[in-house]
Amino acid sequence: MTTILVVEDEETLLDTLAYNLEQEGYKVLRARDGEKALKHIRKKRPDLVVLDIMLPKLDGLAVCRMVRKDPDVAHIPIIMLTARGTQGDKMVGLDSGADDYITKPFNLGELLARVRAVLRRAPGQVIARQSLEVGDISVDLVARRAYRGEDELQLSYKEFDLLAELMRNRGAVLSRDLILSRVWGYDYYVDSRTVDVHIRWLRQKIEDDPSNPQRIITVRGVGYRFEV
Ligand code: CA
After folding, report:
1. Residue 192 C-alpha to ligand 1 middle, in angstroms?
2. Looking at 92, 121, 150, which one is the last position of a domain?
3. 121, 139, 157: which is the final residue of a domain?
4. How far is the CA of 55 from the centre of ligand 1 (A)?
5. Exposed/middle/buried for 211, CB within 10 Å: 0-12, 13-18, 19+?
6. Which of 55, 60, 96, 172 is the most exposed place for a label (fewest CB within 10 A)?
7. Ligand 1 centroid from CA 113, angstroms
8. What tens digit of pLDDT does each residue of 29-61 get?
9. Would you say the pTM of this structure is higher than 0.85?
10. What residues contact residue 76 under an 8 Å CB cut-off, 6+ apart?
């Protein structure tokens, strides 16, 4: 049975979320603060965590970072609930390692759809997404091939992963650290400049003018964004 941990200190919202997830057939665990959430995650290993950011004791971002640093539970997908919908908040949520985020107030149907989507792409489950397409760039995730229009791009292993990660999160800013952790892995010792170098190589392959990139945009002091 699929178990979902819901972490929220607003009692009414917690009840509503738990009730609706149970109606969908999930087993629901509840936590009302960050410390309790971490305990549940480590002991009960839920299949998914729905995590509010504003929480007593330990906030959601801190919980998320700690989960991502713990090899035993780092793979557990997390959907973050954020109060505001600015680009900055989204960036902070993804930067801490969340798989998806949803802005309050949200529609329950939307949350349930996100839950299903995140569970589908969780490790060991059926891969929901097999290809990505943004503009004339497309990526076949199964065959590990990338195309610009009809032309196949000659990408190295890491360039391919980097392109796929940027396209998966198109429109959102990804920090160098986040890119490092997702593309190179948490334990891999590489300098964040490695990301810049690979971005440069990738630009030479997918941009009309690599010195004036229109697809992979540098967000100064933060990281990179794949333009929609
Ligand atoms: Ca809260």
Report:
1. 33
2. 121
3. 121
4. 5
5. exposed
6. 172
7. 21
8. 999 999 999 999 999 999 999 999 889 999 998
9. no
10. 41, 45, 46, 47, 48, 49, 67
